[in-house]
Amino acid sequence: MLQEQALAIVVGLGNPSRRYKRTRHNIGRMVLERLLDGAAERGELERWQGAYELVRCAELGVILYAPRAYMNVCGEEVARLARWFKLAPERLLVLHDDLDLALGRLQARWGGGDAGHRGVRSITQHLGSGSFYRLRLGIGRPPAGLEAVDYVLQPFTAAERELLAKVLAQAEHEVYQLLDRMQRGEQQTWSLSVCG
After folding, report:
1. Which helix (H) or strand (E) holds 21?
2. Among 12, 38, 120, 180, which one is most buried in terms of CB atoms within 10 A?
3. Catalytic residue chosen out of the listed positions 25, 96, 117, 126
């Protein structure tokens, strides 16, 4: 059974309400949706209130998880799920938006601080550790006169959507690479650019 073979959890951060579905803050969930669409084998689990499925992904049993809690307080759900599957923080990959990277830039990293990202901060606090993998998905800084809190809750513009499609495809590929690196125990930072 897949549940007994769960080797990693991939968490796509975002806000659960339909009105946030295509906002910059939900880019991590957008990548998770792509992973779900491409999963070779799926087995939905019903023990949790969060939306998650156990899938076969990159030859591994991987839990793809979209917390139902809002991003800033999602850590409790993520930590409970990791404990239930008896997976250490080192078996967690968090996909999240990042204001410090331009749209079209990705950074895969092991550990580190939360860089002001409240979803990552919540997960770190509830796990009691920042020792997990992250895929930082650049969304860029807001234009002058627009607060960051308002910017992240806006949808991508029509002009950004073509690049966004490339970013999501590259991020999906990068998740497979990170799961492979996780299996080998590699713990470092890798950066790449989708748009050059």
Report:
1. none
2. 12
3. 25
The string of pLDDT tens digits covering residues 25-46 is: 999 999 998 988 876 555 554 4
Annotation marks residue 25 as catalytic: yes
What's the CA gap between 61 and 2, in Å, rounded? Answer: 6
- Give the number of domains in the chain: 1
Which H or E run contains 32?
helix 27-38
Range of the domain at 130: 2-193
- For 18, counting Cβ atoms within 10 Å of its Cβ (0-12 exposed, 13-18 middle, 19+ buried), the class is exposed
Q: Say which CATH number the domain at 69 has.
A: 3.40.50.1470
pLDDT (tens digit, 9 = 90+) per residue, 43-89?
A: 554 444 455 656 656 566 788 888 888 999 999 999 998 998 889 99
Gap between the Cα atoms of 163 and 192, Å rounded: 14
DSSP string, 100-160: TS-TTEEEEEES---TT-HHHHHHHHHHT---SEEEEEE--PPPTT--HHHHHTSBPPHHH
Q: Which residues of 42-59 are buried (b: 16+ CB within 10 A; e: fewer)?
A: eeebeeeebbbbbbebbe
